[in-house]
Amino acid sequence: MIYQLVILVSLAVLTAIVLRNLIDLRGLPAERSSADIPFVSVLVPARNEEYNIRACVESLLAQDYEHFELIVLDDGSTDATADVLRDLLQDDSAQRLKVIDGTPLPEGWHGKAWACHQLGREARGELLLFTDADTVHEPSGLRKAVGGLQESGADLLSLTPRQDMKSFWEQLIVPVMYFILMTYLPLRMVSRSPRGAFCFANGQFLLFRRDFYQAIDGHEAVRKDLVEDVWLCRKVKQAGGKVVIFNGTATVRCRMYRSFGEIWNGFSKNLFAGLGYNTTMLFGLVAMTAMFYVVPYGFVISAFVLQSYTAEMFWLPLLQIKLALLCRILVAVKFRQPVSGSLLHAFSQLMLIAIASNSFYLVRFGSGSPWKGRRYNFSGRAR
Fold first, then answer.
1. In what residue span(s) does the Glycosyltransferase 2-like domain sit (predicted)?
2. What is the pLDDT of the chain when averaged over all its residues?
3. Could you give the angle at which helices 81-89 and 53-61 cross, rounded to 10 degrees?
4. pLDDT on residue 251
């Protein structure tokens, strides 16, 4: 009975965090709060993005902001990305567009950090927006983001884009990212606390003040950090800067992965790395995931089989399941995700456990995490 009550109370606390985060994660301001119109460099690293790059670039060129440049770096793509970019350069609307070829990846860097580092050196803007090649932006997005940065006085602004999910596996697994964010991290502390434990940023949209980006040594400071966005947030805080996050579902959308293999490899690459290769934290996450979101179903099924509808075997686990599903549905609505996917919440958590195990295996016993033709392992000696 004590075990069931502890789990229930824990889930009630997590539900309270979700409810508070729903309030705190607000959308971007509708208008700029200042007449100042800083020059913005919009920077897009692209490696093997032939299916995404056209929509991304065209949406960025269509921004209603008055003062920006757009630089795309082709990071050694082996598909038709370079051909698409050359075609885009021929368009009359591409006067703002500049395309550069990336140089070979040096030892001790991961690909995205190296690509962004090169883009930062090319940029002329007072503000630097790093955004992924698989994003699509509303025309007002840049204007509103600049307004949000000015209004908040932040040194780094990040958004939570809407995640486009078309296949079964995307709808099952991709929402786990925002569920973890909304459940375990009090978002108001990201901007209010200097502690590195309260950090979040999304590499799909990072808007920096140039002087602060340079003060923290930019992406060079996170050249070995595969989850570079969160570690950039920590670098900004360590340097005394301010980080803010906004709900970007009305501003930016992104389709991160298109197949089960991409989802499996992408999340496996990031999960253990995002925990700083801390084995205790990884298995702590696995244990909490199992106890909070999987084991209660085992009790309820056992109660049906044994016809034992006691509080310990049935009613308390059932209440735990209801709290978990409530949180999952609230997060889905907040981020414009299919609510129907919430009914598979337990299966998505089982997939999270499987991905965490694979992420650990690749680092500790494998040859590193594969991604877009490269393998990464910057763990040193995992703890």
1. 41-213
2. 94
3. 30
4. 96
Q: Which two tokens stand for residue 146?
A: 């600049």
- Residue 382 — pLDDT band, cuts 50, 70, 90? very low
**Of 78, 82, 95, 94, which is closest to residue 53 (Cα–Cα)?**
82
Q: What's the predicted TM-score (pTM) here?
A: 0.93
HEC string for the chain: CHHHHHHHHHHHHHHHHHHHHHHHCCECCCCCCCCCCCCEEEEEEECCCCCCHHHHHHHHHCCCCCCEEEEEEECCCCCCHHHHHHHHHCCCCCCCEEEEECCCCCCCCCHHHHHHHHHHHHCCCCEEEEECCCEEECCCHHHHHHHHHHHHCCCEEEEEEEECCCCHHHHHHCCHHHHHHHHHCCCHHHHHCCCCCCCCCCCCEEEEEHHHHHHCCHHHHHCCCCCHHHHHHHHHHHCCCCEEEEEEEEEEEECCCCCHHHHHHHHHHHHHHHCCCCHHHHHHHHHHHHHHHCHHHHHHHHHHHHCCCCHHHHHHHHHHHHHHHHHHHHHHHHCCCCHHHHHHHHHHHHHHHHHHHHHHHHHHCCCCEEECCEEECCCCCCC
C-alpha distance from residue 192 to each of 34, 226, 237 (Å):
23, 25, 10
Phi-psi region of 143 (alpha: psi -120 to 50; beta: other; left: phi over 0): alpha
- The type of residue at 221 is A
Structural domains in the chain plus CATH codes = 2-20+270-370 (no CATH), 25-257 (3.90.550.10)
Q: What is the pLDDT of residues 287-338, one digit of tens each?
A: 999 999 999 999 999 999 999 889 899 999 999 999 999 999 999 999 999 9
